[in-house]
Design brief:
The chain is mainly β. It is built from 2 helices and 20 strands. The strands form 2 sheets. It has an 18-stranded antiparallel sheet that branches. A two-stranded antiparallel sheet has the order 12-13.
Length: about 400
């Protein structure tokens, strides 16, 4: 966060210095070019879940988890001498979770290293829009850290719109370079191998995991009521793709840690429709097909309606259905054989169907909220999640926009 603040501060200082040297005739043009704060977005959310298929204990046991998340992003912009609009977004996110299932990594202690932790992930992005060429391009950097991993990511994006702005092609490419702490279950640690808990001086292994992502999308305005978007998002991962503290139990009663291939290719393909039914109602539908070389296939359908009760108050009920097959390496507790090349009992990559249903309320009066002129938007969303494996979850999200 300090790096972001310093970067923004230096930019502001440079612009102030340039402004001090301008003549009166140049000041009007400078006012159009100076860096200005466009909006501030604040989001806070809570997510809680429970179930009985924890991968930490081999596919059985509690999946109880609570997570509090908060984020703030600052959107700034300026126009250069060639009338190109530059946008800078500084984003800071922090989550804090408690996990009863992760605490079973080391059940002999009062609390393992992973019972609770704080996840911090800031990012900084820049983009430039050129109306003369109908193009936008940019770059972003993201950093993420938690008790058992560190990640650095970089993304590039390019967008080309048609002359009438009815069609738009977008390309995004990114890479994430992660380093994971190979935490093992307590009873499976070799002599002298550490737990990664605070105060433990014994060494632990560190493993890489790299992810490479590409996203291609094409959007088209069909008419004044209908918009269409098609996306293809191939991804490739390499490195430590298994989780070392996930236990796997064999049919003979013995157990070891999860083992999965060191590479994975993913291919999601999706389409989105937005239909404007007059001034009060917007219908949105999304479908995604997913396949990977581990044998998983999945289908996801998402439906949402946004209805304006008044010009400034709207409600948005939504529903998402998902169905997926298991990866070929999955088996439930106690069903793996020692002759298997790879094995996991992680129900996140098992076969199941899920439902996510909820609604949101959004307030956006033109004069601001509750007498605060710059308080542009207030939104509250609730969702309930259900899996056929028995897992249930609930989420509440509060979003505020200052503009």
């Amino acid at each position: 966060m300090k790096k972001i603040i310093i970067t923004v501060g230096l930019l502001m200082s440079l612009f102030r210095g340039a402004y001090a040297q301008t003549t009166s005739a140049e000041k009007e043009n400078y006012e159009k070019r100076k860096l200005k704060l466009e909006e501030v977005n604040l989001v806070t959310s809570y997510y809680g879940q429970d179930g009985n298929n924890s991968a930490v204990t081999g596919g059985i046991g509690t999946e109880k988890l609570s997570d509090f998340a908060n984020s703030i992003d600052l959107k700034m912009s300026f126009i250069d001498r060639k009338s190109r609009q530059h946008s800078i977004v500084a984003d800071f996110n922090i989550d804090h979770y408690t996990s009863a299932s992760s605490d079973n990594i080391d059940p002999l202690t009062l609390s393992s290293a992973s019972r609770s932790d704080t996840h911090i992930y800031p990012s900084l992005s820049w983009s430039m829009k050129n109306d003369a060429t109908h193009t936008t391009h940019g770059i972003s950097y993201a950093y993420s850290t938690e008790y058992d991993y560190h990640s650095n990511g970089i993304n590039f994006n390019f967008t080309k719109a048609s002359r009438d702005n009815n069609r738009e092609f977008s390309l995004k490419a990114g890479a994430f370079f992660d380093t994971w702490t190979a935490i093992l279950p307590a009873e499976l640690r070799p002599s002298g191998y550490g737990s990664a808990a605070e105060g433990d001086r014994d060494p632990v292994a560190y493993k890489p995991r790299n992810s490479y992502n590409l996203a291609l999308s094409l959007s088209q305005i069909i008419n004044k009521r209908l918009q269409v978007l098609i996306t293809v998002e191939p991804a490739f991962q390499e490195g430590l793709l298994s989780t070392p503290y996930h236990r796997v139990y064999f049919s003979d009663g013995s157990h070891t840690v999860e083992k999965l291939p060191g590479t994975r290719f993913k291919l999601p393909i999706g389409g989105r429709l937005s239909y404007f039914m007059g001034d009060r109602l917007i219908l949105r539908g999304f479908y995604r097909f997913y396949a990977d070389n581990w044998g998983m296939k999945a289908h996801t359908v998402n439906l949402e309606a946004s209805y304006k009760i008044t010009p400034f108050v709207s409600v948005s009920p939504f529903y998402r259905f998902s169905n997926q097959s298991a990866v070929r390496y999955f088996k439930p507790y106690g069903q793996h054989s020692k002759t298997d090349a790879y094995y996991t009992s992680d129900y996140d990559i098992s076969a199941f169907s899920s439902h996510f249903i909820g609604a949101g309320v959004r307030l956006a009066p033109p004069g601001g909220l509750w007498g605060i002129k710059h308080w542009n938007t207030f939104e509250l969303r609730y969702g309930h999640y259900m899996r056929t494996t028995g897992m249930v979850g609930n989420s509440v999200t509060l979003a505020v926009k200052l503009k």
